Amino acid sequence: CSLLAASFPSQTFFSSQGTYQDQQSTYYSASQASLTPTCRVSPKGPSDVAKILAMATQDENRCQFAVRTGGHMAWSGASNIGKEGFTIDLQELVLEDGQARVRLSEDKAAVSFSAGVRWRDVYRVLKPENLTTVGGRIGDVGVGGFLLGGDYILNYEIVLFNGTIINANGSSHSDLYWALKLGSTNYGIVTRFDMVTYPQGPVWGGSQFFSIHDAPVLLNHLVAFTKNFDKDPKAFFGLSLAWNPQAKDYIIWTLQTYLKPVPYPSPLWDDLRDSTAKPLIDMMGIKNLVDVTEEFKEADPGKHGRSRWLSMTYKPDVKFHLDLHAKGVELFEPYHDHPGVHWAVSIQPIPKKFSGASSVQKRGENPSCLKQETGDLWVMVITTDWLDPADDKVMNTNAETLLEWAEDEARKRGLFHPFIYPNYASGSQSVMERSTSPEALRKMGVISRMYDPKGVLNELWRGGFKISRRGELEGWVYDRVEL
Ligand SMILES: Cc1cc2nc3c(=O)[nH]c(=O)nc-3n(C[C@H](O)[C@H](O)[C@H](O)COP(=O)(O)OP(=O)(O)OC[C@H]3O[C@@H](n4cnc5c(N)ncnc54)[C@H](O)[C@@H]3O)c2cc1C
Asked: What is the dotted CATH code of the domain comprising 203-433?
């Protein structure tokens, strides 16, 4: 930190300084904010990131560090670190020309943004042009963490372990481009993303809250919705069975969007429009997508608590999700009167059309084990929040027990799928091993060795999901033509 303070005197912050405290206080989860790095440094552009990374990884320094964008990954240590290291906070990062943080191409077909922005910053530039891109449902989520757990990128500008800045895309460093789609913290710090834009006018979207007694109706709706998605892929429907500490009752929170200004479009919403399940609170309406993402943020009950999220994937099944909720009730109900305790089991569909979407839409392959042949799936996330550090142990243990139960039971019922969606997972989960095929994982390991031969990032960069670099690479030969 003293070296950083010498090189970046106005961009390095210590715990007594307001900027350090502000950055710490804007993590989504108090489990992350309670870690206190020796210092925090705010690079302003890719060349600052390059200099910082080169300093940290030099043999004579070898400093541990974490990297943070929106700070929304919930588990402790995902994007923050304790006294043993420092945190690179990308929130002040601008594009290489030093002018803008988000820039639309002249033909408006692509948008480039610094890795330091949040989705709302991108949507606000696209909205006046009636455009959008594929991003987070909540405007507050950072682009950095979000996009290193998914697909849809045209180009990554990335700083490698030694400070070299390169661009990875379909024609340059295409092996790295492939790996970065599930790259997490293995390859380098991304400083800019380029993405395709799509025309987007007003949408029908928002939230509806239902009584917990309507769970079977809504889950049956989600089964049909997932199956029918092929007929009209402009739709999203996700739901949470949640404990609501304010009302002291269970509730169902649904997030719904249709990318046209049409309420209850047919055929995906047919059953819900005519259903006996009527929302207790109805916030659906014709809106701009930006407003929908801001509303979702306001409705989210978890912010600022200590948090633990865990995720798994299974085949759509109403009874399984009801049983999972019942198991959660058994585990968490004894703690409902503890400060700020909130938990939910949420699902969102991965229709088979999505699993095969990458190759269908010519964005190239990705390392994930999701394939169209797998059929329809649901990604499930257990979210837990609480306020008292004294509850850390019991809340973490209960969340893990619930996941263990779900995985065992899904296997027994023939519903289990190994994929773990990185954006919803916890550091304790084997995300890389489970979400790729053995061959893809080996290839990711080889690519990491090519771009970081000594595994410096694996050793020094804390947080994210790491690729194991040892045994599995033995005897593996992968033809690489670049670098
Ligand atoms: C309220 C809420 C709503 C959410 N909604 C969605 C959703 O709709 N869809 C979805 O898919 N996910 C969603 N998520 C999950 C979210 O996408 C992930 O937690 C994501 O990692 C957050 O990105 P971030 O930049 O805010 O997080 P951070 O905590 O800043 O970073 C997350 C990880 O990415 C790494 N990282 C960050 N920036 C970079 C970079 N530039 N280069 C390399 N590594 C980097 C960090 O080191 C860390 O390991 C949501 C999370 C929350 C809390």
From this structure: 3.40.462.20
For domain 102-199, the CATH architecture is 2-Layer Sandwich (3.30)
SS3 46: helix
* Per-residue model confidence as pLDDT tens for the chain (483 residues): 999 999 999 999 999 999 999 999 999 999 999 999 999 999 999 999 999 999 999 999 999 999 999 999 999 999 999 999 999 999 999 998 677 899 999 999 999 999 999 999 999 999 999 999 988 888 899 999 899 877 689 999 999 999 999 999 999 999 999 999 999 999 999 999 999 999 999 999 999 999 999 999 999 999 999 999 888 888 999 999 999 998 899 999 999 999 999 999 999 999 998 888 999 999 999 999 888 888 877 777 666 789 999 999 999 999 999 999 999 999 999 999 999 999 999 999 998 877 765 543 445 688 888 877 789 999 999 999 999 999 999 999 999 999 999 999 999 999 999 999 999 999 999 999 999 999 999 999 999 999 999 999 999 999 999 997 544 455 544 444 333
Closest CA to 143 of 82, 207, 95: 95
Rounded Cα distance between 412 and 52, Å, is: 49
Task: Tell me if 156 CB under 6 Å of ligand 1.
Answer: no
69 token code pair: 């964008």
The DSSP code for 164 is -
Residue 130: Cβ within 10 Å count: 14
Q: Which residues on neighbouring strands pair with residue 111, listed in sequence order?
A: 104, 195
Question: Does domain 2-92 bear CATH number 3.30.160.40?
Answer: no
CA distance 446 to 209: 47
CA of 413 to the centre of ligand 1 (A): 32
Instruction: Say if residues 251 and 212 touch (Cβ distance below 8 Å).
Output: yes
Q: In the chain, what are the domain boundaries? A: 2-92, 102-199, 203-433
Residue 105 φ then ψ, to 5°: -70, 160
Q: How far is the CA of 444 from the centre of ligand 1 (A)?
A: 21
* Rounded CA separation 17/38 (Å): 12
Helix (H) / strand (E) element for 229: namely none
Residues 91 and 145: beta-carbon distance below 8 Å: no
Nearest atom (ligand 1) to Cα of 421: 11
> Residues near 108 by Cβ (< 8 Å), separated by ≥ 6?
129, 131, 197
- Residue 463 CB less than 6 A away from ligand 1: yes
